[in-house]
Structure formats: structure tokens, C-alpha cells
Design brief:
Length: 158
């Protein structure tokens, strides 16, 4: 009897841990803490830092719609962040040559400086989060995460 209670408690604790990770609250709190120095240094909001980082990794997928899909933020907040970043000369805007409804955003040299610092913060975050995780465990985590992502996407499409 005692063994089944321990197994049940372990399962409940594991489900709670998975739920906490999926909800992202603790992760968000931790990343906010790690990004605080850059936010203060450049007087930027979290969404502005996210936009800069996104633009540094997105390649041709540099529209508001792509950003919205990537971090599921309100399009108005993204547009406001882009406006502010443009005023501060961290980002430039270019209308799509084939479809004038779309605007493509690019980092300026100053924006790339911030992106470089952001990359270092994200590398630290990843090192901290995956300390003690073996390559095999990481591969398993990535496979499971991909399946969960696909399941969520499928449910949202219904």
C-alpha cells in the first residue's frame, strides 16, 4: 500500500512539474530575471527584446505575422515594439516588393549589437536549464517537445 501511494504521489508531482513547464510561468520569471540587465541597459521592454532576438534568427520570415506566430504576442504590441525600435534606430522597415500589404523588418547595426548580447543571455539560460541533462536525455526531450508542439498545433487548428 505504501509503495502505491509513493508511486501515485510521484506521478502527481511529475504531472505538476510538466504543467508548470508547459504554462511557462517559472520559465518566464527566470528569463525576465536574466534579461533584466539588458532591459535596463537599453531601456527596452521585454517584447522589444523579443522582437530584436527574433529578427536576428528569422531570416526572411521577418513580418509582424511571422512574429505573432513565433511568440504568440498581440499584433498590436508587436507593431508598437517595432515602431519604438524603429524610432530608436534599432530596426528598419521595408515594404515587400511583390505584395505591398507586407512589411519586412531588419535589424540595424545597433540592433545587431543588442542581438549579440541577447544571444549570450540565451546561451547562459540554456546552459543553466540543461545542466546535468545528457545528450541522450536532450534528444528525448526534443522529440517529446516536438510531439507536444504538434499536438497543440493540431488542437488549435480544430
Amino acid at each position: 500500500m505504501r509503495h502505491s501511494l509513493q508511486v501515485e504521489r510521484t506521478n502527481v508531482e511529475m504531472e505538476k512539474t510538466v504543467e508548470v513547464i508547459l504554462r511557462g510561468g517559472r520559465f518566464k520569471q527566470y528569463t525576465q530575471q536574466e534579461l533584466a540587465g539588458l532591459r535596463e541597459k537599453y531601456d527596452l521592454k521585454r517584447i522589444e527584446l523579443e522582437v530584436i532576438y527574433f529578427l536576428s534568427i528569422c531570416g526572411e520570415n521577418n513580418t509582424v505575422a511571422c512574429m505573432h506566430e513565433y511568440f504568440n504576442a498581440n499584433k498590436g504590441h508587436i507593431s508598437q515594439a517595432l515602431f519604438t525600435l524603429g524610432k530608436r534606430k534599432f530596426v528598419t522597415a521595408e515594404q515587400d516588393k511583390k505584395d505591398r500589404r507586407y512589411t519586412h523588418y531588419h535589424l540595424t547595426a545597433e540592433g545587431f549589437v543588442i542581438a549579440g548580447e541577447l544571444k549570450k543571455v540565451w546561451e547562459k539560460v540554456h546552459r543553466d536549464l540543461f545542466t546535468g541533462v545528457t545528450a541522450e536525455e536532450m534528444a528525448c526531450f526534443q522529440r517529446v517537445s516536438q510531439k507536444v508542439y504538434e499536438n497543440i498545433s493540431r488542437q488549435l487548428e480544430k
